[in-house]
Amino acid sequence: MNPLHPLKTWHRNAANAAKLYGAIVAQARLPVFYQDLAVPDTLEGRFLVLSLHLFAVLHRLKAEGGAAVGLAQDLIDRFSEDMETVLREIGVGDLAIPKKVRRLASASAGLLQAYGEALGEGEEALTAAIAKAFPVQGAAPEAATRRLAHYLTLMVRALEAQSLAALSTGEVRFPEMTPSDKLGDDLA
Fold first, then answer.
1. pTM value?
2. 7 three-class SS
């Protein structure tokens, strides 16, 4: 019996969570969200798109119950580490980082909870939840939030079809988003 076996398992889970988080970040950075959906390409806009993808994956993991708790926690921990890194990169001082990370964690938890509650109520409720978090107000965000709500619905459905085994190894397939997508046409 290898006394380091539990550590190997932990390391593999952390590596798989990092791979899964990397896939979430890569999807959230696609230019289509910022160019065609009019999400501002700012820290706040990127946070919004990242939170939608993170929510969809965590929602899928939550459906698995206890079998996915460790992966979900590792994913949340990876997200927190990433937020700390971003804060350091934008010049937040070391003494202020813990306070700002707690504030971001609280905001993230609130967003994820709002998306979860709205998901059960349909795309109109999702649109409203996303609109509250959208970094810009006015007429343009209305179309963008509708398309984002529709995309989030598609993403949740796509993730429901993916196995926990695949997600546990860091593999995830998001619905394809291309500039030619006519998501808004599907809403009518």
1. 0.83
2. helix
